[in-house]
Amino acid sequence: MADRLVIATANKGKLAEVIRIIGAGYDLLTIDGFEGIEMPEEDGETFIDNAAIKAIAVARQTGLPALADDSGLQVDALGGRPGVYSARFGAPEAKDDIDRYRLLLSLMADVPEGLRSARFVSAVALATPVGLVCAAEGKCEGKVIFEPRGDRGFGYDPVFVPLGMDRTYAELDAAEKDAISHRRRALEALLPSLRSFFGR
Question: Which pLDDT value is given to residue 112?
Answer without folding.
Answer: 97
